[in-house]
Predict the structure.
Amino acid sequence: AQAEARILMLSSNNILKPADGRPVALPSHEMIIGMYYLTQDVDGLPGEGRLFSSVEEAIMAFDLGEIDVRSKIKVRMHEITPPARLADQVRPDGTLLMETTLGKIIFNEALPESYPFVEKHVGKKQLGMIVNQLAEQYPKTVVTEVLDALKDMGFTWGTRSGVTVSIGDVQTPANKPEIMAGYDAKAAKIDRLYERGAVTEEERREELIRIWTDATAELTSAMEANFSATNPIYMMVNSGARGNMTQMRQIAAMRGLVANPKGEIIARPIKSNFREGLTVLEYFISTHGGRKGQADTALRTADSGYLTRRLVDVSQDVIIREEDCGTERGLTKTIAVPAEDGTLRPVKALDTSVVGRNLATDAVAESGEVVVPTGTDMTEDHIKALLAAGVTTIKVRSVLTCEAATGACAMCYGRSLAGGKLVDVGEAVGIQAAQSIGEPGTQLTMRTFHTGGVAGDDITLGLPRVVELFEARTPKGKAPVAEADGRIKIEDGDRGRKLIIVRDDGQTDVEYLVPRRARLEFDDHQGVHRVIADGDHVNVGDQLTAGTIDPQDVLRVQGVRKVQE
């Protein structure tokens, strides 16, 4: 048991999370503020533009109070790995004159010497990327040392930065009254139209919600522009240390639209922010949302635990039983789509759908040249090579098509995200997968946002949506799927709109009844937003309205393959 704990539970063996391969051991909070402060460059600080012959000389000038860690200075760097853009400026003696700040030099001292010099302003996101690259390229011992050094440095400079928060740092945009007046006028106009009977209750509600959403957005951008780069609260949010712009907006701009206990958005916004204070009515409306949040959290914990239990129950016997089952089957993945200018645009989410899997068949370019051979563990570099060769689809091994007698084989499963290499035989990947899905379940929201209690427009999100997918249930307000290739004809009837597909092969037309308020648009998975109009051509399996599609429909129309994808 001790040996197991030493190997499996030691923190240095758990830098990457088994669920998605991202680093878990990351500095946070004050440590991030420290690094963010350290790598900032600020104009007009003492010593700006001075030139130093070595890092030591710059440190001496800092100790004497002649420069700030964030002053823009030039330093002759010795024995560094230059950033890619400066690689050609290194002198024969290995030195390089760099325009940088002392803070960035101190930050880079925590990183391995062979790691390229980081010139960026480092917040949580950049730090995650750096740790990711370190975990890929360096042995564990190096990564743990770097993380330790980053931790110490973050705390030291977090302390020395003197970043504190006071109410004076919360700055409301000076032009808030003017911005609000414009939107108040728009809202009053809609109310007048409603009183004259020119718009329905529903249309007025929708229009008001749209007006106040726009108002909140405009006020938020005014607030963001209003903050200086050295404002402590802005630094805290922008570095990723704590808080986000939504919370900032509520404190400094306006609270915005809130929902009532039924989950419908109330069409009258809260125009005050917490800095100014809410009126009694605004405060009362706010309490709805607050109570709903508390009740939600209590219910969610139980639901999430139960989902995890069911997932483990079905997947516990999926264990890696052999190295390679020898199948040539797999899933065909699209890696790029042609963009409008004729170039190939990589598809979204390649890092999760293709990277770390093994190729089932050779990836061949149009010239007949094999770009990436069968059995290769796909990396981002391989994808770049495929895009350069003009390959748009590849076939990858998948557990769904594995032919192992029991469990699955290592080649079909691919790379273990925690270790970064092919998964070991005997690894309980089923339970790992179940727990990876169950674990964030508690953080998902249980909200179904009703944009006004209208059936067919409710979009289920968060935990209920995950459960819906696993149970393969028909979703509420599902979107119809085109059952044939053809042109769309839209007819307005009494009970709603009729979508008719006039088939290309001349067989009987296919009809769908959709609610009048259903939006005829959707996002395909390649990140393209499509709006469907009369006379448009659709292909089999295309989604016809906004909403979620029913896995049962996909199975009926396009077969098992598509559902698996």
